[in-house]
Specification:
It is built from 15 helices and 17 strands. Helix 6 runs parallel beside helix 11 and helix 8 packs across helix 9. With about 450 residues, the chain is an alpha/beta fold. The longest helix has 18 residues. Strands 7, 8, 9, 10, 11, 12, 13, 14, 15, 16 and 17 form an eleven-stranded mixed beta sheet that branches. Strands 3-2-1-4-5-6 form a six-stranded parallel beta sheet, with helices on both faces. The chain has three domains: about 150 residues, NAD(P)-binding Rossmann-like Domain (Rossmann fold, 3-Layer(aba) Sandwich), CATH 3.40.50.720; about 160 residues, Dihydrodipicolinate Reductase, domain 2 (2-Layer Sandwich), CATH 3.30.360.10; about 80 residues, 2-Layer Sandwich (Alpha-Beta Plaits).
């Protein structure tokens, strides 16, 4: 069967023909943008050898033109108008690393409408507007790549879209926010309370002056929406992710978890069930010996369970200029290799081709069934039996009960680990417990995850 010749090779023996460089326009030359430009310049020969052609930045948009000039030098067009870069006739690929969901959407859609590929590290943009952006890209025959949007140095999007394509993915779970992981590590290792650990994270540059997106779990939820879509073949569904941050976590519970042989991590989890999927971000207890329990500081770690592959683990830096640049440039290399490839033959934006995407119902909060940790402050030791009876009456099976060590003065802290029980049953049990005269203060509940193969 006749095939059109590949434009990358000549017709006399298949010798490679030199291609012109891939021309990049960049919106944003802050931490990530500057890191991307720096790595491209430093490793240009190696990158070109992998891509089969050079990759060069030809236009940059920045608010601070003097700073941009100091980063990129005289050979790059510099402007403070993002649309000039998004629609620049000499740009093949728009790299959007400015962030946000409003103006960034307009820039990306304008670039797509002008026939340009897009690379972005903006997880919020894709979590909120991904369906619209991917549809526009399909309409115009261009690609949208976003490895840097999730767990930056970890090639988890490529793993889900390409490396694990033979698998039916059962679940994805991981630590995908370095700021909160640093805070939790400090609470455990240094005995700090939440406010102290947050202040330290801010002083070291791990947390923003306004850390709400991180500590309230929103950033992790953006990333989880993209992970779940690639794992299960569903449209991006950020709106239905159940999100609980770490702001209510007390260092007392970090210490209690350690006593019980667990560590608390902010986990992003997507599970596939017969009746739908779970999409949730929340602090949870992990066995202290678990692989993800060893992910400390600002590092990220993700587990994927496939029916053929079994468990696979991905670990690496979750933030930083050059780790993010590594992911952005990997996307650029993929795009540099696309010459002569028909859009229908490219790797789909969400791992599955658009016609095969299927919306799945998200299980409601009350129906999610996990193990649980409870901390019940009581007035005296005779309350243990009463608490056990009440939990049994509410269909919450108890695995283990013990007293917190070292309690001096005030209420005694009864620690409970349950077997798997629906969240609705646990919520009712906690409501009833709270009304008992023996209970000396607010009861605390966190989920327990084993994440076994």
């Amino acid at each position: 069967m006749y095939r059109d010749p590949d434009p990358r090779f000549d017709s006399l023996g298949g010798h490679p023909v030199a291609l012109r460089p891939l021309r990049v326009g960049m919106i944003g030359i802050g931490t990530v943008g500057a890191g991307t430009f720096r790595v491209l310049a430093r490793n240009q020969a190696e990158i070109a050898a992998r891509a089969g052609r050079g990759i060069e930045v030809v236009a940059v948009c920045a608010r601070n033109l003097a700073r941009a000039l100091a980063v990129v030098g005289q050979g790059v067009a510099i402007t403070n108008d993002p649309m000039q870069v998004a629609t620049h006739p000499e740009v093949d690929v728009l790299v959007e690393v400015a962030g946000g969901t409003g103006p960034a959407r307009d820039w990306v859609l304008a670039a797509i409408a002008h026939g340009k590929h897009v690379v972005t590290a903006n997880k919020a943009l894709l979590a909120v507007h991904g369906t619209e952006i991917f549809a526009a890209a399909r309409q115009h025959g261009v690609a949208v790549a976003y490895e840097g949007a999730v767990a930056v140095s970890i090639p988890i999007i490529k793993a889900l879209r390409e490396g694990l394509t033979a698998n039916r993915i059962g679940w994805v779970a991981g630590i995908v926010n370095g700021t909160t992981n640093f805070i939790l590590s400090q609470m455990r290792d240094q005995g700090l309370d939440f406010a102290q650990a947050l202040a330290k994270a801010q002083a070291l540059g791990y947390a923003e002056a306004d850390p709400a997106f991180d500590i309230e779990g929103t950033d992790a939820a953006h990333k989880l929406a993209l992970l779940a879509a690639n794992a299960f073949g569903t449209p991006v569904n950020f709106a239905e992710v159940q999100v609980q941050g770490i702001t209510a976590l007390h260092r007392l519970d970090v210490a209690c978890a350690e006593q019980l042989g667990y560590r608390i991590k902010l986990l992003a989890m997507a599970w596939r069930h017969e009746g739908g999927v779970e999409l949730r971000v929340q602090p949870a207890l992990l066995p202290a010996t678990h692989l993800l329990a060893q992910v400390n500081g600002s590092m990220n770690g993700i587990l994927v369970h496939g029916d053929a592959s079994g468990l696979t683990l991905y670990y690496g830096a979750g933030a930083g200029a050059e780790p993010t640049a590594s992911a952005v440039i990997a996307d650029l290399v993929d795009l540099a290799r696309l010459d002569g490839t028909h859009p229908a033959q490219r790797v789909p934006h969400l791992a599955f081709h658009a016609h095969a995407l299927q919306a799945l119902p998200v299980l409601p909060h009350a129906d999610i069934c996990t193990r649980h940790y409870l901390r019940v402050p009581v007035h005296h030791a005779r309350c243990m039996a009463a608490v056990g009876r009440l939990l049994a009456e509410q269909s919450v099976p108890v695995e283990r009960m013990e007293w917190m060590h070292g309690t001096t003065g005030g209420a005694r802290q009864l620690l409970v680990l349950t077997y798997a029980a629906p969240q609705g049953c646990v919520d009712r049990a906690l409501h009833t417990l709270q009304s008992l005269p023996e209970v000396a203060g607010p009861c605390v509940q966190w989920r327990v995850e084993l994440l076994a193969g």
